[in-house]
Amino acid sequence: MKKSLENLLVLLLLLPLLWIYTPATQDWGGDFAAYIHQAQNILQGEEIGDIGYLYNPDYYRLAPPSYPPGFSILLAGWIAVFGSEIGGLVLLMSLLMVVFGLGFYRVLRLQFKPVVSMVALLLTFYNPWMIRFKIEVIADMPFALLVVWSTLAYFKAATAKEKQFRKWLICAILVALTILTKTLGWVVLIAFVLDGVVRFIRSKCAESLLGVGILSGVTFGLVYITQHFWLPAPADHLEHFTSIAANSPSTWDTLVANVPLYFDIYKAFFIKDLGSWGWIGTTTSSILLLFALIGAVVSWIKKGMHVTDWVFLGLMGGLVLFPITNGFRYLLPAYVFFFSYSIYGLGLLPWHWLIRGWLPFLSLMFLGGQYVNGWTKIADLPHQSEGPYLLEYAELHQRIDDISERYPDALFAAAKPRVFAFMHDIEAFSVRPDLGVKATEKQFYELAAGRRVYVIHVKATPHASLDSLSRNTPLPDDSQPRAYVVGPWREPVQSTPDSSDISLHYDFPYSYMLTYFQLPSRWQYSESPLFRYFTSGLTHSYFAIEKRDTTYHWQYNSNLPESDISEGTLTEELWSQLDATLRAYDFYQRPIYHGYLFSSLDGGPTTIEAASGGQYNLISRRSRSFDRFPGTHEDSLFLSLDTAVLHFINESIVKLEP
Predict the structure, then answer these.
(1) Model confidence pLDDT, tens digit, residues 269-309
(2) Rounded CA gap, 598 and 588, in Å?
(3) Residue environment code for 309-335, b if the CB has 16+ CB neighbours within 10 A, otherwise e
(4) Three-state DSSP string of 55-86
(5) What is the Cα–Cα distance from 435 to 253, expressed in whole angstroms?
(6) Contact at 8 Å (CB) between 178 and 147?
């Protein structure tokens, strides 16, 4: 089949993505707001980082002060021609998905036949996760697009017989855009340089070194000019990454935690929406992971290292060493290479020739059939899902506009400050969710420097500290609407609660965060008949209780610097006392994360989207991350609580122990 016909067929196969699920909305994630705001600043000739988001170093995990300009440059071009309506930007993301799909296919064709590559294409781009993800106006998918097309451009330049300089120049422009879209893009350039050096060693051809030299020089020049002269980043941008490094586990601990996590994320991509097919999907995804590992090792041994291998190792190295994870969206750029290893590994099996020819179609029917449940869910989704564009928030937006017009110097505190800063041209910030009421107010005064502060309370974006403040400031009509603004706060406080009075000042709100982190190995898959596990998603601290015969072993880790892990045992009687204390605060019946409730101990409802392999697999809707929590029994209980609550539980234990 001619290459042009192949490309046309691929585009026809991907074309329905332009119409499948294109709601004119965004969820409450703040990334889309930051990127669009930056794009508008580019068009208006303003500082790219001036997006109204008041960066709080104490809450660096929320978001950096700004993002690299690459994706915003692309958005600026679209907005200049078609405007900034969210429906148009969602269409742009669908178009980019189609272009990404074509590049995905061409990368696979470097190794596999057309039929195999097309089946892999369909299994990937019609996966329910991809269909839902394509409406997100964020940089992850454009970054993946640039990675695959940069790889193709490099391969074409490195193997060209003529017009090499022009091809190296095109490759350099694509690599520069990749780096300007996400900082991780530097590993793509490093991978190309390594491949060029390997080619030189193998062939003794100086053109390989000359090519990567041109590539490196032009790329460095374009990135430097953009970041230092045209669109420089804010001064506090570096502080953000410094804070991440200073407050993260050691490199080894991060590596040990992230390697199995990304393996699980790869598997979860194929099984998220299976419903009752869970056991089949778990087996299928495990096979794909196993043969990806086999395929990678065999490929490296038999064929040596090539450019796709260097790119894959570079991307995965960057992901597993970075302490913050965010599900499959981070893995997406490396997925094409990951999946190609699965295909190569499966191809090593001695399939019978009659079966081998039909294998791609059988795979398409088998794996594609597992997507039906997810497609049904997408069909049932409303045209406008929960998010700031929902009509129900019109009154909230009007209230914010009224306040900002009356008090132009007002600041707004919110769980999603970048969303409101973008939509209302205001300054907004946030604080850590694990603060008490008075500590939250104290941060207001430190960040606001005497300015009037209002709190935006949105029930759909729970935030423990701000929720507590709002609950302690009742509205005049004593109502609790879907969203409202309370405040202002201007007077300074005299004191803040310390560890001894948290229970007096803290209303024990829950953090609504689900995150993955590593537990001690003996608790990874506990076989205990009773295993209760409390965690703060913000700080990765945890408190766990495990029954061993007639005693209850507990462990508390505050995850603070220079803090030891506390642990000990309780008798049945002492556990009953602690259990009564927890029940008194209603910890066992608190909703977690948009209606999820994990509490089967008292016969309450339990909602789990997928359960398999002797552990509960919890899917976080908003973050779309694949979270794995330990537990093998129906009476296991999982609660995501605030750090202050964990401290309270630990203090209660200490008081109970003789």
Answers:
(1) 877 665 545 566 677 778 888 989 999 999 999 988 999 99
(2) 8
(3) bbbbbbbbebbbebbebebbbbbbbbb
(4) CCHHHCCCCCCCCCCHHHHHHHHHHHHHCCCH
(5) 27
(6) yes
The answer, yes or no, to whether the previous bond of 605 is cis (omega within 30 of 0) is no
Q: Match 């996760």 to its residue by tokens.
A: 129
Whether the model pTM is above 0.70: yes
The secondary structure of 113-178 as a DSSP string is: -HHHHHHHHHHHHTSHHHHHHTT--SSHHHHHHHHHHHHHHHHHHHT-SS-HHHHHHHHHHHHHHH
Count of beta carbons in the 10 Å neighbourhood of residue 280:
16
Token pair listed for 291: 């043969």
547-574 pLDDT tens trace: 666 677 766 665 544 445 666 777 777 7
**DSSP track, 376-419:** HHHHTS-SS-SSTTSGGGHHHHHHHHHHHHH-TT-EEE-SSHHH
Give the span between the Cα atoms of 199 and 30, in whole angstroms: 43
What tens digit of pLDDT does each residue of 421-471 get?
999 999 999 998 877 677 787 888 888 877 888 999 888 887 878 877 776
